[in-house]
Structures are given as C-alpha cells and as structure tokens.
Amino acid sequence: MARTRIPPVAGGLAAAVAVALAAACWVAFPPEVAGRAIAARPAVALPVPWPAAGQASAEVQGLGSLGDHGEQRPVPIASVTKVMTAHVVLKDHPLGPDDAGPEITVDEQAEAESSSTGESTVPVRAGRRIGERDLLALMLVPSGNNIARLLARWDAGSQEAFTGKMNHEAAALGMAGTTYTGASGVEDSTTSTAADQLRLAREVMKNPVIRAITGTANLRVDGVPGTIVNTNTLLGREGVIGLKTGSSTAGGGALMWAAKARDGSLILGVVLQQNPGGTPAAGLRAALETSERLIAAIRRELPAATR
C-alpha cells in the first residue's frame, strides 16, 4: 500500500495545531500522575494572596484556570462533602427551579441524631413530612449532618449504598483524588483535593436549585424551630453567591465558593486545610477570611488582566 506523504507546510501546520490543542487540554483537563491531577497551568496569572498554608484552586468560567496552590493531596473536607450529596440526590430526583419535590418522612434515626452534641445537626421530629427541596436546604444552609444521612437513606436505602453512588459520580467527573465514606463529611476518611472539588463546583453551579439554596442567607422551614442561618457568612460580600462551608479538627476550615466578577463573570474557588488541628470554629473563620481576601483580589485584578 502506498503511503501518503504530508507536504512540509501542511505537516508543520498539523504539528502546530496539535501543540495548541494539547496546551488547551492541559488547562481544561490536567494530566494525572499516580492517580493525582497535576496542577493546572493558569490561563490567567493574577497577583492574588493565595493561602499561606493548605491548598486552593480557582477559575473564571469562560476564561479558564487561575491556578492551583499548595500540594494537591487528599485531605479531609468535612461538610463540603454535602455538595456531592446534594448533586447525587438531585441527579436521582431532579427538581425544577421552583419545585418543592416529594415529601420525605423523617425517620427515628434522624430525630435521634438531632440531639448529638458532637456534630452539626438540625432538630427534626420523626414522622414529620418535609419536602425534598426543604431537606436539601436544611442540609446545605445550616449544614445538618443528620439531614444528609436521611437524604442518603431515602435515595439509596442506606448511607453505604449512597456513598457508592457518590464515589461513582466523583469518578465520572474525573475527581481522581477523592474518596467519599459518608454523606455528611463528619468522617475524616472522606478526603479530596481543592482541584477535585473545583471540578464539582463547576458541575453543580449548572443546577438552579443548588445555586438558589446555597445563595440563601437564612430561611424558615415548617416544623423546624427558628430561623436557619447559612454558615457561609461571605454571602453578599465581594460578589459571593454560594456555595458550602466545612470544618473539623482534622480538616481545619474549608470553603467551596462561587462569586460574581465585576463584569458578571462567574468565579469559582475552593480553599482547604485552613488551620488544621485547631478548633473547627477557628478553622472555619480562617477559611472564610482567606477566601474573602482571595476573592476580593481576583475581582480587583481581573479587569486589567483580561483587557
């Protein structure tokens, strides 16, 4: 069989195109070594105050990566886990932007766990019927661990079966450094990287229900006492419109965030391992403060960098 020869000019053009495509793929889908993603090359380099410790990742949608900071190794992510829980529940039981969803009966386990003093919970009574959307809000806004596990049992029959779904979805999203061992994040064995969680943030912000719930500063739910306040106190500041906090002794403070740039572009980011070993409250404060400085700098520097 005769071989077709590529003329020198065409061959050079093909090589140039191949190099350009490879560079673009590196930014959007960084390669992996030993199961861990190599840090993405930033599409735009900004002089921003990355955290002094821990790890972080950020991007501007439509523009690309702002880079990964710190060693992207799996660490406990605490209640940031609940973002994947919400994602899996809504994949299995989709809701329209204004849908309340099916009513779910609170079981005795969820009520018993309400009185736990060792984790974040929401007071609910067994036998009470609460809509899917309200339960998602009780999980994401005040970070109710007992509600996360209730939703897992409702969706998959057991938390263990639901966790399998979480890991399957993580693999589908290319989150190679992530392992989920529960629906709430209370287990230190649930670990991930900032780069992986940024992939998840990119996916869940496509869902109007998650966007609306995580952007709610406070709410009331029938049958649940008092006003429920969002643990993400950055909402409404520096353009922040969501997403989810996390804190534990082992993991320190964590925050997955979404913010609007001054031109309306969506900025997404994740900060992990802030003040690990301290109290969860101190870790959360550190994550919020670090994230606020980072977001403010990105919003300030982005216009000049993209002109």
Quick structural overview:
By secondary structure, the chain is α+β, with helices and mostly antiparallel strands.
Descriptive notes:
- It is globular and about 55 Å long.
- It has helices at 8-28, 81-92, 108-114, 132-140, 145-156, 159-172, 194-204, 208-214, 280-305, and strands spanning 32-33, 36-37, 55-60, 64-69, 75-76, 103-105, 129-131, 191-192, 218-219, 228-229, 240-248, 252-260, 266-274.
- Mean pLDDT is 87; it is low at 1-39.
- With 307 residues, it is α+β, with helices and mostly antiparallel strands.
- The longest helix has 26 residues, at 280-305.
- Strand 11 (240-248) and strand 12 form a beta hairpin.
- It starts with 7 loop residues before the first helix and ends with a helix.
- It has one domain (43-305): DD-peptidase/beta-lactamase superfamily (Beta-lactamase, 3-Layer(aba) Sandwich), CATH 3.40.710.10.
List its salient traits.
single chain; 307 residues; alpha+beta; Beta-lactamase; five-stranded antiparallel β-sheet; two-stranded antiparallel ribbon; 9 helices; globular; disordered N terminus
